[in-house]
Amino acid sequence: MTHGKSNRFLLLYASQTGQAKAIAEEVAEKAVKHGLRPDLNCVSNTEKKFWLERESCTVLVSSTTGEGDPPDTALKFWKRLKKKTLPDDHLGHLNYILLGLGDSNYTNFCNFPKNVDQRLTELGAKKIIPSTFADDAVGLEVAVEPWMDDQIFPALRKHLGLSNDQTSDGNSLADSDPEASSVVDPDHMQDTLNNRSVTQDVHENGSSMPDGDNTVTNAESMDNQPVIESSGNDTQTILDDAEESDAKSKVIIEANQTEPCTSELQLENEDVEENLVRSLPPLSECSLNIPACPPRFLSLKYDQDIQLNVKSLPIQNNYPFPSAKTDIQRVTIASAEVLTGCDALKTALKLTLDISSTGWRYEPGDSFSIVCVNPDHEVDQLLNRLEVFEYADCLCEISVIEETKKRNAAIPAYLGENGTLRYWLRTTLDIRSVPKKAFLRALVEHTTDPGEKRRLQELCSKQGADHYARFLRQPNLGLIDVLLNFSSCKPPIALLLEHLPRLLPRSYSSTSCFEVKPGWLDFVFNIIEIPAGSGRVEAKQGICTGMLSSLCKPLLQSTCTNVSELTEHVKTLSLKEPIQIPVFLRGNQSFHPPADLSIPLIMIGPGTGVAPFIGFLQQRELSLQSVSDRGSVGETWLFFGCRHKDRDFIFRNELESFAEKKVLSHLEVCFSRESPEGCGPRYVQDNLLLHSTDVVTLILENSAEVFVCGDANNMAKDVKQAFVKAIETEKGLSAKEAEAAVFDMLMNRRYHEDVWS
Ligand code: NAP
Questions:
Q1: What pLDDT is attached to residue 113?
Q2: Same-domain pairing of 117 and 191
Q3: What is the mean pLDDT of residues 355-382?
Q4: Structural domain contains residue 593
Q5: CATH number at residue 715
Q6: Whether the Cβ atoms of residue 708 and residue 752 lie closer than 8 Å to each other
Q7: Residues 199, 235 share a domain
Q8: pLDDT, position 600
Q9: Which positions fall inside the FAD-binding FR-type domain (predicted)?
Q10: Which of 468, 494, 542, 598 has the smallest number of CB atoms closer than 10 Å to its CB?
């Protein structure tokens, strides 16, 4: 029996892409094991399902979007919270814990959760522990794991007046926590027979019952062999999963390998280096703290008599996409053009979409999203590897395992109940995403080779955090890479549906101006090439840019000696057989040039970052037609950078023509791989510093607006630093004062960024 409200707390999430929600769900799972009663809610349910004014203890997990903005789901919540009329003690009774998620590659890191934190404090709420802000640039897990594993539950229990070794009904907390993290101790090898794993089932009351004969349990032997049952009407039903095994938690005691496994023998005489599949002492020899195995919750049933027409299925079960301003429409790719030379390091393509049937309008600087699909080859690879190819296209029904231990278990809304395995893997699940540690932990249970099992345990353990970052997250490896490297790992396919995140659309800036080209939308992108190596067995292309380039294959396969001829060729092709892609326009956008033409513009966009500025300049050219006094018009500067003048100077003709017509007062271009070291500017920020006198006068005296578009990882930061440096030098200010001046521009929305990592 629980004690009325004493162990209850409100658990809120403000999610844009599902990360904050997933973390809040994990908090909910773990809270119960800590004897707590979470009341889980999306912040959008404010004043419908919860009232902050009535709460005394709240945990909030919130993500950040755009330039530090609230997720779409948090707009109403935030509007109410920031009402100026609220008294200072409005939330005086509230105690809270806050976890913010953000990405420091973007301006205003965790701005929204930080604002919420500040506002809660202003309204009298008290922090139970200091707020935590996790950074996706270094891996959210770096901050989230210690927060989840060590901080919140002891703090919550203490705050709620529960002792940290007893549940609210007086039982021992250890007893109530059957799935707490396990310790994997290699020194327990004496307990094992013939170097095999011993699996112990830990019963709910905490007593442990060693598995009689030390053999692999049912769970491990059954999981990859679907049970074939007759449904009684000649339809074969295959039940995936061994639910029973997953309802129980396990402490695994792994043997130290007394004999080297095959890969070790191969490596015996080579220089041994750590990599994805191999560790060295001390990690390979230490005891490991591994997370509890996430409970299984989905079960699949196939009907091989029914081949589903997946074309009739709504895209991702009609579950809304984040940031969508419009519905999804299929539009025709009217033309494709290669913008770079054959010898360019990257191939840039410009595509023109015919959006005349959609009724959409867009502003220069707006972006839109393309709903992409995973490459067929990779989907086939997974289906084959998991031995479910024969069920790939028949009707598959998902249900929640009735006796699952997962709280609030539900079929992910974007999957829907009915589909096919191929359909979900191709269109709905992000099969390329880096497997989370919980997923790796679940994979351990489906891996038979002891060496591979141990390595997967290491990668999801506390002790192996650095290896997880180095060998999985940094090289951006996905599930296929893991499966190809760990050959004895064969998870049931339902595990993928439980753990793989949703495949999200990819966004691109419009390159054109709607007023100049009504009914058309141009955009540009580099085809992303991802080489093999660092654990990646095969080279790949980016999911969306790869999909687009293969749709326009006739163009790309031809020798690109005469670009215009090839463009015409694709035009003819697309007329015969329209190539269509599903797209939608994005909302909440602010990367727009000021309507007032007297405001000077400084635009910085190396590589494809120049995309939105073509639209800016097209619009400006149009607007200038109705201006009689050109003297009143502000200056326009564009800093563009690429590698070589003759290979990747994209939009060269357009930019030079804008400069000739004085739509662009200053076109400053630099080539990063042409000038010998030390001669001339290499990058846009070097060029900016060469013109620091003009630039600083424009921003500090003529109220110029700055627009930066392109790479978030390095360029955007370096450019901001260059502005600081320029102000420092030109005005004789200290670095701090110069930083404050740039910060002021950011706050006053005179320094805009549209950066992508
Ligand atoms: P890129 O070809 O990789 O690079 C363009 C130029 O930038 C090269 O000369 C490169 O020099 C240089 N560069 C490298 N590091 C730099 C730094 N720290 N500061 C300044 N310049 C630097 O560019 P890209 O692939 O087109 O990338 C542009 C970025 O814009 C991508 O992140 C893309 O996602 C983003 N973006 C795309 C769109 C779109 O709609 N497609 C819109 C907005 C933004 P070296 O290689 O010689 O070092």
A1: 97
A2: no
A3: 97
A4: no
A5: 3.40.50.80
A6: yes
A7: yes
A8: 98
A9: 326-594
A10: 598
Closest CA to ligand 1's atom 32? 711
- Kindly state if the Cβ of 500 falls inside 6 Å of ligand 1: no
Residue 428, helix vs strand vs coil: helix
Which ligand 1 atom is the nearest neighbour of the CA of 757?
A: 32
Residue where the block lists tokens 């529960």:
162
pTM here is 0.81
Reply yes or no on whether the pLDDT at 171 is more than 70: no
Q: Is the dihedral of CA 699, 702, 703, 706 positive or negative?
A: negative
For position 106, which CATH number holds? Answer: 3.40.50.360
Q: Give, for ligand 1, the residue of 608, 646, 682, 709 to mutate: max count of ligand atoms closer than 8 Å to Cβ.
A: 608
Count other Cβ atoms within 10 Å, centred on residue 439.
21
Distance CA 211, CA 200 (A): 6
User: Based on the domain organization, do 274 and 197 belong to the same domain?
Assistant: yes
Are 405 and 247 a contacting pair, CB within 8 Å?
Answer: yes
Query: In this predicted model, what pLDDT tens digit does every residue of 77-102 receive, in sequence order?
Result: 999 999 999 999 999 999 999 999 99
CATH number of the CATH domain containing 196 = 1.20.990
What's the one-letter identity of residue 91? L
Could you tell me if the CB of 756 is within 6 A of ligand 1? Answer: yes
Cβ–Cβ under 8 Å, residues 446 and 199: no
Which residue, of 499, 519, 546, is where some domain finishes? 499
Which residue reads 């699952």 in tokens?
Answer: 404
Is residue 641 in contact with ligand 1, taking CB distance under 6 Å?
Answer: yes
- Residue 508 in contact with ligand 1 by CB distance below 6 A: yes
Q: 266 with 258: CB under 8 angstroms?
A: no
Amino acid identity, position 156: L
Q: Measured from the CB, is residue 708 less than 6 Å from ligand 1?
A: no
Q: Where are the alpha helices (DSSP H) in 403-511?
A: 421-423, 437-444, 450-460, 465-468, 479-485, 493-499
Q: From ligand 1's centre to the CA of 346, what distance in Å?
A: 10
Give distance in angstroms: CA of 711 to centre of ligand 1.
Answer: 5
Together in a domain, 620 and 705: yes
pLDDT tens-digit profile of 499-509? Answer: 999 999 999 99
Query: Are 127 and 235 found together in one domain?
Result: no
Reduce the DSSP state of residue 68 to 3 states and report it.
coil
Q: Do residues 98 and 210 share a domain?
A: no
- Cα–Cα dist 36/124, whole Å: 25
150 occurs within a structural domain: yes
The residue nearest atom 35 of ligand 1, judged by CA position, is 710
In a domain, 635, yes or no: yes
Query: What was the pLDDT predicted at 181?
Result: 55
| Whether pLDDT at 164 is above 80 | no
Helices (runs of H) and strands (runs of E) counted in the chain? 24, 29
Is the minimum distance from the CB of 713 to ligand 1 under 6 angstroms? Answer: no
Question: Kind and range of the H or E element at 611?
Answer: helix 611-624
Residue 192 confidence (pLDDT) above 70: no
pLDDT above 90 covers a percentage of the chain that reads 69
Number of domains present in the structure of the chain: 3
The answer to whether residue 544 is domain-embedded is: no
Closest CA to 335 of 522, 515, 514: 522
- Atom nearest to 648 CA in ligand 1: 2
Structure tokens at 133: 């802000």
SS3 assignment, position 657: helix
Of 465, 499, 533, the residue that ends a domain is: 499
Q: How confident is the model at residue 678 (pLDDT cuts 50, 70, 90)?
A: low
Whether residues 60 and 201 fall in one domain = no
Structural domain boundaries enclosing 643: 601-756
Could you report the per-residue pLDDT of 650-669, keeping only the tens digit for each? 999 999 999 999 999 999 99
Both 292 and 439 in a single domain? yes
Ligand 1 centroid to Cα of residue 674, in Å, is 16
Q: Per the structure block, which two tokens stand in for 599?
A: 């405001």
